[in-house]
Specification:
about 110 residues, alpha+beta, hypothetical protein tt1805, 5-stranded mixed sheet
Amino acid sequence: MTRLTADIWVSAYLTRLRLADIPVFVTSKGDPTAGAVLVKMNTLDGQACCYQRSFDLMTGARTWVVLSEGDERGVDDSIAKQRSFDPDLWVIEVEDRAGRHLLDQEGLSE
């Protein structure tokens, strides 16, 4: 199975969110080929959650897991820490009061 480059995956994800009328912004552009992606879910109430892609060595599955959650400032600090040792990191911020990020949908959750 061929893997998508980071920039193609990000572009497709942004398009899917925009088609659902969910505001989204790229706050840090990483390596276009192989940069890791963090998704910050901002519920616009001072709270946030940051997701990262995880690989299960036992099953080979790729899933989105919570890297950090709580008050937005704390989540931002966690993202800044990740960026300090991974300059190729993409950071996408999704803003939705209902907490919709679409990461659990087919094609994004796998």
